[in-house]
C-alpha cells in the first residue's frame, strides 16, 4: 500500500499502535550510501528480519528517494539507486514468498515512482490523504487544545472555518503559537484573541515593527492595500476581505488578507477574473493618487501572480474564445526522469502570438475594470487610507463600516497610544465623503522603491 499523505508521522504512529504486531520503519534515503551494493544488501537484511518476526509491518518513508523511475539517467547506465530498487521489487514479489509481511510506503511525489513499483502485487493499493476539511480541522484542534488552558470564549468550529488549507501540523502549530502569545501577555488562559494573533502570524508572517518606515511610505502602503481591499469587496465571487494591515510582515510592507468561506474545490471564470482585478487594485491606487511616474515596485508580485493566472486561463483552462477549450501549455517534465530531454513543440509561432494577445486582452479588461471601480469610490479609498494610518490594522467590521460610508469603529482591543482623538469627538475616522477630484499628493509623498511584495 502506498500513501500520498501530508501527515505521514500521524499515520505511522496510528498504524504501529493499532496493528499490535512488530513494526519496522526505515527511510528511503537510508538504503543508499557511497559503497556499491550497500542498498541492495540492506533491503535483503530488512526483509530477512521481517520474515523472522512475521506477522509484521514494514514502513518505508519517503520511498521516492529510492523508488524513482529507472532508466532515465542522462548517462544511460545503472546506478546504486536502481540496484536497490531492483532488489526491493524482487523481495516484494519475487520467487520466495513473504507471507505475513505487509509493506507500506509513503511519499509526497507519487508521479516520479517507477511503474513497476505500483503494479498489482506490489504497491497496488494507493491511499490519497489530502488536507483535512472543516470538520476534520475542528476535531484536530480539539485534540491539541486539551494541552492548554482555554478561555470560555474559545470555539473550535469558528477557528476551523477560518483556517482553510491547514494541515494537522499547521493546526498544532496554531495552538502552540496562541499559547505563546498568552504567555507573553501574562495570561492564565488562551482566548480567541491569541488564536487570531497566531493565525495572522502563520498566514501573513511575523510582524516587523522594528522596520523603520517614513510617513510617506506608510501612506503609500495604506493606499496600496486599500486598493486591494476595495476591489476585492466590489467584484463578484471574490473571497471576503478578512484583514488589512500596513504593519510589515515577512517580506511584505503590507498585507490584504482574503479568507475563503469554505474549502476551495474549483473556480469559475468570473471568480478568476475578479482575482486578477483585485491583484491590480494596489498598483492602480498608487497610480491614481500619485500619478504614473510615481508608481512603486510594490506590485511586482501582484503582477506576476495575475499574469500567471491569466496565462493559465488561456492555455490550460479553455477560457479564450479565439483558442477554444484546448490545452496549449507545455508541461515541464522531470529532466532526471527523461521526460524533458527531447520535448517537441506543441504550437506554432502564430498560436503563441495569439496566446500573448489573449493574455494581454484579459489583463487589460480587468485592469480597466479595477480602475473604474476605484475612480467611482475615491471617497472610500481616502477613508480607508485614513483608517489604516490610524489603526495600522483593520478587520472585517471596520471594512464593512467603510464600504457603507459609516464612521469606523475602532478594532477590537485597540487603544489610542496618544490618548487623544485623531479625527472626531469619539476618536474614529470620519465617514467617507464623496469627492469630485482625486486628492493632490504632497511632493515627495512617494516611494522610489519598496523592498518586498505587498
UniProtKB/TrEMBL annotation:
Signal peptide: none annotated. Gene3D superfamilies: 1.10.8.60, P-loop containing nucleotide triphosphate hydrolases (3.40.50.300), Peptidase M41 (1.20.58.760). Residues 418-429, 442-454 have a biased composition (Polar residues). Its EC number is 3.4.24.-. Its main location: membrane. It is found in: Membrane. The keyword Phosphoprotein does not apply. GO terms for cellular component: plasma membrane. PROSITE patterns: AAA. Coiled coil: none annotated. Pfam families: AAA (PF00004), AAA_lid_3 (PF17862), Peptidase_M41 (PF01434). Keywords: ATP-binding, Hydrolase, Membrane, Metal-binding, Metalloprotease, Nucleotide-binding, Protease, Zinc. The keyword RNA-binding does not apply. Residues 7-133 form the AAA+ ATPase domain. NCBIfam families: FtsH_fam, PRK10733.1. In the C-terminal section; belongs to the peptidase M41 family. Belongs to the AAA ATPase family. This is ATP-dependent metalloprotease. The lineage of its organism: Bacteria, Pseudomonadati, Pseudomonadota, Gammaproteobacteria, Enterobacterales. The gene is hflB_2.
Amino acid at each position: 500500500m502506498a500513501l500520498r499523505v501530508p501527515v505521514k508521522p500521524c499515520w505511522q504512529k496510528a498504524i504501529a499502535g493499532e496493528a499490535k504486531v512488530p513494526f519496522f520503519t526505515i527511510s528511503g534515503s537510508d538504503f543508499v550510501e557511497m559503497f556499491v551494493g550497500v542498498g541492495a544488501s540492506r533491503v535483503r537484511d530488512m526483509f530477512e528480519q521481517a520474515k523472522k518476526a512475521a506477522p509484521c509491518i514494514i514502513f518505508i518513508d519517503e520511498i521516492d528517494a529510492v523508488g524513482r523511475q529507472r532508466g532515465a539517467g542522462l548517462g544511460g547506465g545503472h546506478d546504486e539507486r536502481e540496484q536497490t530498487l531492483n532488489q526491493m521489487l524482487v523481495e516484494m514479489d519475487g520467487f520466495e514468498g513473504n507471507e505475513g509481511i505487509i509493506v507500506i510506503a509513503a511519499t509526497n511525489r507519487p508521479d516520479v515512482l517507477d511503474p513497476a513499483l505500483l503494479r498489482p502485487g506490489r504497491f497496488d493499493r494507493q491511499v490519497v490523504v489530502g488536507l483535512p476539511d472543516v470538520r476534520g480541522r475542528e476535531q484536530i484542534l480539539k485534540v491539541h487544545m486539551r494541552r492548554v488552558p482555554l478561555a470560555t470564549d474559545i470555539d473550535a468550529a469558528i477557528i476551523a472555518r477560518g483556517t482553510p488549507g491547514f494541515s494537522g501540523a499547521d493546526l498544532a502549530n496554531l495552538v502552540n503559537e496562541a499559547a505563546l502569545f498568552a504567555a507573553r501577555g501574562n495570561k492564565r488562559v488562551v482566548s480567541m484573541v491569541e488564536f487570531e494573533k497566531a493565525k495572522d502570524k502563520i498566514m501573513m508572517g511575523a510582524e516587523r515593527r522594528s522596520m523603520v518606515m517614513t510617513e510617506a511610505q506608510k501612506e503609500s502602503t495604506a493606499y496600496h492595500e486599500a486598493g486591494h481591499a476595495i476591489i476585492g469587496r466590489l467584484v463578484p465571487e471574490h473571497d471576503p476581505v478578512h484583514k488589512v494591515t500596513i504593519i510589515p510582515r515577512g517580506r511584505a510592507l503590507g498585507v490584504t488578507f482574503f479568507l475563503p468561506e469554505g474549502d476551495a474545490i474549483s473556480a469559475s471564470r468570473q471568480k478568476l477574473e475578479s482575482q486578477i482585478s483585485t491583484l491590480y487594485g494596489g498598483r492602480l491606487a498608487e497610480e491614481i493618487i500619485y500619478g504614473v511616474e510615481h508608481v512603486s515596485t510594490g506590485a511586482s508580485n501582484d503582477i506576476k501572480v495575475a499574469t500567471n493566472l491569466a496565462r493559465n486561463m488561456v492555455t490550460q483552462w479553455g477560457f479564450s474564445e479565439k483558442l477554444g477549450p484546448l490545452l496549449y501549455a507545455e508541461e515541464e517534465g522531470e529532466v532526471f526522469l527523461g521526460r524533458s530531454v527531447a520535448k517537441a513543440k506543441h504550437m506554432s509561432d502564430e498560436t503563441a502570438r495569439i496566446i500573448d494577445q489573449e493574455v494581454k486582452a484579459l489583463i487589460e479588461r480587468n485592469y480597466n475594470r479595477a480602475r473604474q471601480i476605484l475612480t467611482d469610490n475615491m471617497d472610500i479609498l481616502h477613508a480607508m487610507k485614513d483608517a489604516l494610518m490610524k489603526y495600522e490594522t483593520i478587520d472585517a467590521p471596520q471594512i464593512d463600516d467603510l464600504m457603507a460610508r459609516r464612521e469606523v469603529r475602532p478594532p477590537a482591543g485597540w487603544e489610542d497610544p496618544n490618548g487623544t482623538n485623531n479625527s472626531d469627538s469619539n476618536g474614529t475616522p470620519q465617514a467617507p465623503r464623496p469627492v469630485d477630484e482625486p486628492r493632490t499628493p504632497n511632493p515627495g509623498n512617494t516611494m522610489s522603491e519598496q523592498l518586498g511584495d505587498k
